[in-house]
Amino acid sequence: MLRRRSALASLLVLGGGAPSAWATNAADGSALLQRVRERALQDTRAWEIVTALTTEVGARVAGSPNDAKAVQWALAQAQALGLANVRAEPVPLRVWQRGPAQARITAPHAHPLVITALGNSVGTGSTGIEAEIAYYADFTALKADTSDKALGRIVFIDQKTERSRDGRGYGQAVVARVAGAVEAARRGAVAVAIRSIGTDRDRIAHTGAMRYDPQVRQIPALAVSTPDADLIARLAVRGVVKMHVALQAQSDVVATSANVIAELQGSDVADEIVLLGAHLDSWDVGQGALDDGAGVAIVLAAAHHIAALAVKPRRTIRVVLFANEENGFDGANAYAERYAHQTHQFVSESDFGAGRIWRLRTRLRADALPAVDELAAALAPLGIERPATGANEGSPGPDAGVLMRRHKWPAIELTQDGTNYFDVHHTDNDTLDKIDPATLPQNVAAWATSAWWAANTPQRFGPL
Ligand SMILES: [Zn+2]
Q1: Mapping DSSP to helix (H, G, I), strand (E, B) and coil, where does residue 457 land?
Q2: How far apart are CA 191 and CA 193, in angstroms?
Q3: What is the pLDDT of residues 31-50, one digit of tens each?
Q4: Do residues 130 and 106 lie in contact, with contact meaning Cβ atoms separated by under 8 Å?
Q5: Of 121, 173, 226, 269, which has fewest CB within 10 angstroms of its CB?
Q6: What is the spatial distance between Cα 271 and Cα 390, in angstroms, rounded to a whole number?
């Protein structure tokens, strides 16, 4: 059946038509923005994409055969979604490889522990290490200790992670994982064990990266499950607790990965980039569904959605699936080198699971802020607020954050609800079933709307 179309509607016809100019008056611009949002909200493709990634590839630790498979998968996926200039840009790596790891309480009675080695940890040697535990209630208590309590012992840091919608609990706790080994070794410890950085009550351990200081002896580092951490805490108040740890690992293994890049070529300002990021790698446990399969799916689906419009964006929209976010930010650093010369309208990243987006924050040049009202109005029907305070103190995600800090590129943050994210983060439980398919279209709509707006507004956002 024939029906009449408005000029606006004709811009939105799928495929085929010649690229038209961006609406020249504000009313058409914001009407188009609403249409982009409403159409993306009907799109269930993100669920299909994350299902494919977790099923056809699975866990994909950087530099592994599965990571190489993920790169090939992403190239094919981006092509199939109608994106242009699809390419893999090699990223050289020196990776850490996990070996077998076990730990148990040996006194006051035998008890096997559920543990995981932390990323970058050295091994214990084949016979392992047995020592008394030196208990610390949190990282601050360890830092404050000037006694010889830790000397010759296995330091246990009982740092708890508070559940929070915006991830601040993780932000406060994660230092125990990253810097615990250095502070323990400074006090003469032979190993460090931490309560898993996570919010679940499951008997499952959370991995994640830790770091050494070249000036400080390297000691093995591991995380124990929450119920096991509870037990250690209860035993520690009753008297001497001994632990045996045996873990193996290899560091500095030469490997390679790639950033996968796909674009929607811009029209009259094609050399300016709107960057939608996610990271392709995951830890070697679980399926990397929430971290960060969901983000990969959300930004690919958002870009696909804009590719399907009959009108081109003015600026180039570039999807970047970063290599090795989890253990080194090698992909972000390689991108920062390669594209240092290019103007970036904004950088951003979806890397906080699959919960609904509830907040818009930015990090733009001050004179660009009035222009954000248009985006805020377009996102409000999705239940996304622009906060009264801190609205321009956004943090755009881990890889995009590297780019923002390094090049003073502007950024936006679409904050997801992360209330349950740290229940499964970096564990065997990060599997597809933890994603609610119903929350993904709202994410895709917010990303498509934001990308389209940033690509077409006359306002330039940076440099900061
Ligand atoms: Zn992540």
Answers
A1: coil
A2: 7
A3: 889 999 999 999 999 999 99
A4: yes
A5: 269
A6: 30
Ligand 1 geometric centre to CA of 298 (Å): 13
Smallest Cα–Cα separation from 103: which of 93, 92, 119, 114?
A: 114
Report CA(352)–ligand 1 centroid distance (Å).
7
**pLDDT at position 25:** 63
Residue 243, token pair as written in the block: 């632990």
For residue 166, how far is its CA from the centre of ligand 1 (angstroms)?
14
Catalytic residue at 326? Answer: no
86 neighbors 75 (Cβ within 8 angstroms): yes
Break the chain down into helix, strand, coil percent, rounded to 5.
35, 25, 40
Report how far residue 45's alpha carbon sits from residue 67's, in angstroms, rounded to the nearest whole number: 23
Structure-block tokens of residue 25 = 């008056």
Which three-class secondary structure state does DSSP give residue 375?
helix
Catalytic residue among 183, 263, 272, 325: 325
CA distance 22 to 395: 29
Please name the residue that has the structure tokens 């990223």: 91
In terms of Cβ atoms closer than 10 Å to its own Cβ (0-12, 13-18, 19+), residue 131 is: middle
Q: Residue 241 Cα, ligand 1 centroid: separation in angstroms? A: 35
Q: Tokens 């103007």 sit at which residue?
A: 343
pLDDT digit string, tens, across residues 297-356: 999 999 999 999 989 999 999 999 999 999 999 999 999 999 999 999 999 999 999 999
